[in-house]
Fold this protein.
Amino acid sequence: MIDKQIVTSYQVYDNLEEMEAEDVQLMHKAQEIREKAYAPYSQFMVGAAILLENGEVVTGSNQENAAYPSGLCAERNAIYQAGAQFPDQKILAIAITVKSQRKKVIIPAAPCGACRQAIAEYEFKQETPIKIMFMAEIGKVVKVNSLVDILPLAFNGSYL
Ligand code: THU
């Protein structure tokens, strides 16, 4: 038996203004699109903005459905849109922000497992890391330099 360990690292910024201008700009786009979320059931609005290598920014918000599982998260809406519109462009970074209409959220909400798996697909495909930043409506911002930091041992196409 070999006892292995997984080491992950992430950065926590006290607020958005502490970040580099490019990151701030991307988060602002995520905040903008978050306001267009369709979340009548959860009242939880999420926005995601994706920066591509060619400088394009692709955004998405969560879209809910009366048949709950038919809805889709902001991150997957954005990343599938990026994949559909710009299939040959590498993804450099994703900014995610959440806001609840029920309560004040200040703790950065990390992307759900299914969205991490979706991001993993593109990181494996492009063979370069995708930077991920997430925050609530206000407050601290968490940043990881690669999807692998928040989804170690991910399943990928090499197993197929
Ligand atoms: N949601 C996202 O858009 N991204 C996540 O990573 C977690 C959850 C959405 C799905 C649903 O519309 C609402 O937030 C509450 O779960």
Notes: The domain at 11-152 is CATH 3.40.140.10 (Cytidine Deaminase; domain 2). The mean pLDDT is 97.
